[in-house]
Write a structure and sequence with these properties.
- There is one protein chain.
- The protein is mostly beta strands.
- It is 10% helix and 38% strand.
- The protein has two domains: 116 residues, Jelly Rolls; 80 residues, Jelly Rolls, CATH 2.60.120.770.
- Strands 9, 10, 12, 15 and 17 form a five-stranded antiparallel β-sheet that branches. The protein has a four-stranded antiparallel β-sheet with strand order 1-8-3-6.
- The protein is rod-shaped, with a radius of gyration of 32 Å.
Length: 230
Amino acid sequence: MADPTTPTPLQQAFATLAPSQQAALAAILLQQIQQGIDVQILQLALDVAQSPDNPYVLGLFRSIYVVAATDAGTTINFRPNSNSPTNKSFPIGLKDTYTHPIPWAKAYLDWPSQPGKTITLVLFANGDFRSGSQIQALTGGVVVQEGTSVVTNNNVALGAAAVQILPVDNTRKVSTGSCDSAMRIGDSTVTSTTGVLVQPNEVITWKNPAALWAIPAVGSSGTFSSITER
């Protein structure tokens, strides 16, 4: 149990203020308490940009919590106390919290245009709030598009010397292929004892636009077949 005689962070910070500042701050806090203003909820539509030169101004509060937003990429810029260019802003987004020992007299918000997006803030006049929530950014798998068309390459017969099994292709996203016998792959200098050994019918993928060469492993020959996505 906390020692009731130990000053809270707010009391410690309050003690550092000049008497006139203490009186002014106490009057504001008392007015808020009397008016029942301890928690405020504010939803902002972000369709239209809010310039740093004409920011959205918040009144006195101690803690700010982003309780909701359209998605994890929805953010606004937060600048406490002063809107001076020397007082740098920083982005806040979903589930972020920020608390200060002494309530801010004002804070300034700006944001770029984010059509269709909203963000909801909770302001605490006296509370020291910390969010226990976490963001689940993904509810399923990540889908990565690897090309919009599929091209079947001609079968390439492997012989005694290295042959090019995939040509130079700057539009290639990925090529997938296999050989019906063991082979070694690499650049044009690959030999039957160097390069990467690929076992029969083992599938390889090639995402490099450069050419790929192959040669049968010792005592092997075969045919390489592949498809390319562009």
